[in-house]
Amino acid sequence: MALSIITNLSTLSTPALCGWLTALLAIWYVVTAIQTWYPLRHVPGPRLASFSYLWMLWNDIRGTNFEKYANFGKYGSLVRNGPRSLVTDDPEVLRKISGARSRYTRDEHYYSASRVEADRENMITILDTARHDAWKAKVASGYSGKENPDLEQAVDAQVMRLVDLIRRKYLSTSGNLRAVDFSLLSRYFTTDVVSRLGHGKAIGHLDEGEDVFGWFGDVKKLIVFLIATDIPWIRRVVMWKPLFRRFGPKPTDKRGIGRVLGYTRNIIAEHFEKDAEPHQDMFGAFIRRGLTKEQLEGEAVLQLVGGSDTTATAMRGVILHLATSPSAYNQLKAEIKEAISQGRASSPITLQEALKLPYLQAVIWEGFRMRTPVTWGHYKVVPPEGDTINGLFIPGGTAIGHNSLALSRRKDIWGDDAAVFRPERWLECSAEKKMEMDRAVEIVFGGGRWMCAGKPIAVMELNKVFFEVRLPSHGLLLLLRVFDFALVNPVMPVKETALAGFVHTDMWMRFTEAKA
Q: Which residues cross the membrane (predicted)?
């Protein structure tokens, strides 16, 4: 019969053959679309997303992800955002998925796309739960700072270098504007912090305020790559090892991420030298806990890229909302000035001192809520037997991720003004309500075995930089006068694209000497 069909087709003219092929293709698409739609047909969400990845692609290209995901609440708590993927803004569901006894595993959607080199893994790219737990056990102590005796002093040094750079190159005066793109400056700071803690020496972005390796400026390539990872077949092509080896970054590159690979390889080689003294930094801690040279080569770049960019995003979010909220800005100034006058704040401020300033903490966490470093994703796979979530049965193999954009705007958690930056909400509520809000916003760090290993350092960076970079402070030996700031263009303060995280460019700011 098959031979007969082929024979008949061979007698058709070219237009007729094209018509038959088009019809067959259409039938195939309809059948596969129905097969894709059916298993999760009962979960609400955008209609196109239920059977096609075009919904994801369309919003990635148009830059409308923030609006779409932040308003997913209209569908409910559990929403279908792709043919086989769901996102949820329910904190309890997310804690269940990430719990120590959870049988959910990582989905390849996000984690496989976090690979920087074809032949190097890192803690994010490992999908097998047992292997991930073993790897994390080797690096957790280093990320926590327990084996770095001068952790806080190292962060202090970078804060002071940031202050010095602004004073030397970007300090505006009356009639003299010296604007700085804070989207880059924030990354210079966080990358120098992470590199100093990671291997004992800051890369040097804060020396002259320059992209030393030329790896920050090419944002367009980053956007294209993140878009590609949303589409499974594109992701598999992009991450195909032979192709990735040929066109991906290489340690021999002169600029870009490849240059970073080469830089970290040299540092790691020094740490593994036979006669090298024990290093009191993260790399040293990783090595003492059993991380091999090859494993460290993979982890090092994750540490620089992931550890710096997420914290820089949080910094930009807080700065942006403070700059557009004069009442919050002035109240924060008043609190810190009072702390200084009463001797409750040293210079630089310690983490413990910062944690005792209630309005500073409210500003940090409110800014963190408004612009979460990660937006949605970090998908986990439902166990083979399936699971029931919010009364809906979800078949095994479905990917479920967080929707932090919707979670951070839930009115039942944050109030009717959830879309507004208002730090006071953290101070007006009861202790029980504050605990609920704390736990909700901290979900962005993950939970259980998937908790972000670098959370302690990120919290320290935020507390220190938001105290020192804006307001007058002093110490026993040195009087420091730092800065006031304003947006250069309040009408369009920043160019923002929401993908797996926020991509910010052109956040131009004006720094001046702080008024007494």
A: 12-31
pTM of this structure:
0.86
Tens digit of each residue's pLDDT, the chain (516 residues)? 544 554 554 565 677 667 767 887 778 767 777 877 788 999 999 999 999 999 998 888 888 899 999 999 999 999 999 999 999 999 999 999 988 889 999 998 766 667 778 888 888 888 888 998 899 889 888 887 777 777 778 888 888 898 899 999 999 998 899 999 999 999 999 899 889 988 889 999 999 999 999 888 665 566 666 666 777 887 888 778 888 888 888 899 998 888 999 999 999 999 998 777 778 888 999 999 999 999 999 999 888 877 778 888 888 988 899 999 999 988 988 888 888 788 887 766 777 787 888 998 899 889 989 988 888 888 999 999 999 999 999 999 999 999 999 999 999 999 999 999 999 999 999 999 999 998 998 888 777 778 777 666 666 655 555 444 433 332 222 223 378 889 999 999 999 888 778 888 999 999 988 776
330: exposed, middle or buried (Cβ count in 10 Å: 0-12, 13-18, 19+): exposed
Mutual orientation of helices 182-199 and 256-271 as an angle, nearest 10°? 20
Enumerate the domain spans of the chain. 90-383+411-513
Name every residue whose Cβ is closer than 8 Å to that of residue 306 and which is 6 or more positions away in sequence.
114, 124, 454
The sign of the dihedral angle between the CA atoms of 393, 395, 396, 398 is negative
Handedness of CA 229, 402, 101, 365 (dihedral sign): positive
What are phi and psi for residue 332, nearest 5 degrees?
-65, -40
Question: What CA–CA distances, in Å, run from 158 to 104, 189, 193, 327, 420?
Answer: 39, 7, 6, 29, 32
Which residues lie below 8 Å from residue 228, measured CB to CB, with a gap of 6+? 234, 235, 238
User: Under the phi-then-psi rule, with left for phi > 0, alpha for psi from -120 to 50, and beta for the rest, what region is 173?
Assistant: beta
90-383+411-513 CATH: 1.10.630.10
